[in-house]
Amino acid sequence: MSLTIADARKIAQLARLAPSDAELATFTPQLSAILDYVDQLRQLPTDGVEELAHPLPLRNVFRDDTLQPSLPVDEALANAPARTGDFYSVPAVLDAGSDESHA
User: Fold this and answer.
1) Is the pTM of this model over 0.70?
2) C-alpha distances out from residue 96 to 64, 82, 85, 89, 101, Å
3) I want to staple 7 with a disulfide (CB 3.0 to 4.6 A). Which of 3, 23, 36, 73 is the partner?
4) Per residue in 31-78, pLDDT tens?
């Protein structure tokens, strides 16, 4: 498939690119070669070939999720710089009187 510079310019525009004329002169034959190769691949007989989502077999490497006791609150908050009851205490980020909604 032979592309023209106008075709390459249109493809660049669709991709939101703005190549210079010199870049278009370089990219046009390269893009044509890529499309020719894809066309060759399209001609291969693929009847009976199973589709793949990934070329390698995948397996889960994570352990099973099992219920375990949590860390006690006092231990979890032992290094907290400030604490309010069973929670970390942090400085206010938003002004309490602000009417702005961030929903």
Assistant:
1) no
2) 44, 20, 21, 16, 12
3) 3
4) 999 999 999 999 999 998 888 888 888 888 888 889 999 999 999 999
- The DSSP bridge partners found for residue 83 are 88
Listed in order, strand segments (DSSP E) in the chain are 83-84, 87-88
Residue 72 forms part of a structural domain: no
Please state, in angstroms and rounded to a whole number, the distance separating the CA atoms of residues 33 and 42.
14
| pLDDT for residue 10 | 96
Q: Specify the 3-state DSSP secondary structure of 39.
A: helix
Number of domains in the chain: 1
We report the CATH number of the domain holding residue 36 as 1.10.20
Q: Kindly give the pairing relationship between strand 83-84 and strand 87-88.
A: antiparallel
Integer Cα distance of 2 and 29 in angstroms: 8
